[in-house]
Amino acid sequence: MTEQMQDRRLDFGAMGMRWEITRSTSDTAGHFFEAINLLAPGFSGPPLHTHPFAEESYEVLAGTLDVCVDGAWQQLAPGQSVKVPPGTPHTLRNPHATEVRLVNVHRPALEFEPFFRKLEALVVDGRMSLPPKNFQSLVLVSMLFVAHDKEIRSVNPPHSIMRIVAFFGKLLGYRL
User: Fold this and answer.
1) Which residues of 46-55 are buried (b: 16+ CB within 10 A; e: fewer)?
2) pTM of this prediction?
3) Up-side HSE of residue 93: CA atoms within 13 Å toward CB?
4) What is the pLDDT along the chain (176 residues), one digit of tens a residue?
5) SS3 call for 120
6) Torsion-angle region of residue 110: left (phi > 0), alpha (psi -120 to 50) or beta?
7) Phi-psi region of 160 (alpha: psi -120 to 50; beta: other; left: phi over 0)
8) What's the longest Cα–Cα distance across the chain?
């Protein structure tokens, strides 16, 4: 595998999610960020969150994806897609017995790519577990969300709580 191909792969470990970046932020001059996501069976998904200034879309290529958009859960089969407007609470999961393969796009790209790369680095380095299973993981995920609040804001837990946790994390000497 070439170095460029390796640089386009993100593996979020025990979380059950792997990505292949198909169009990076630099590839699209910042217009969007696109990746093929592979979600393992039992993937519990990220917390309910919003993207204040970006649209996110999911197009299922294989498997069945459960997506919650603005409080309503729906199942997407291969060939189906959904767009999540900016500021709309959403999350996704794969409670099914087979892997889900989907195209995920954030438009515009903003700083999503650095956010996901840092998230992967924290998981791979063993500094953070997802979902957070200890105090350090809770602090680091809060700090990461707060550092990228133009890209992502948690709804549950509330972003305001994450800001408080991040503040105290910095006081205690935690660094991303």
Assistant:
1) bbebbbeebb
2) 0.93
3) 13
4) 444 556 999 999 888 999 999 999 999 999 999 999 999 999 999 999 999 999 999 999 999 999 999 999 999 999 999 999 999 999 999 999 999 999 999 999 999 999 999 999 999 999 999 889 999 999 999 999 999 999 999 999 999 999 999 999 999 999 99
5) helix
6) left
7) alpha
8) 48
Neighbours of 73 (CB within 10 A): 11
Separation CA 86–CA 75 (nearest Å): 21
What are the tokens at 125? Answer: 């380095």
CB 51 within 8 Å of CB 77: no
Residue position matching structure tokens 């917390």: 47
Enter the tokens of residue 23: 């169009």
Cβ-Cβ contacts under 8 Å for 148 (sequence gap 6 or more): 111, 114, 115
Total number of residues shown for the chain: 176
Q: What angle do CA 122, 124, 128 make, to 5 degrees?
A: 40
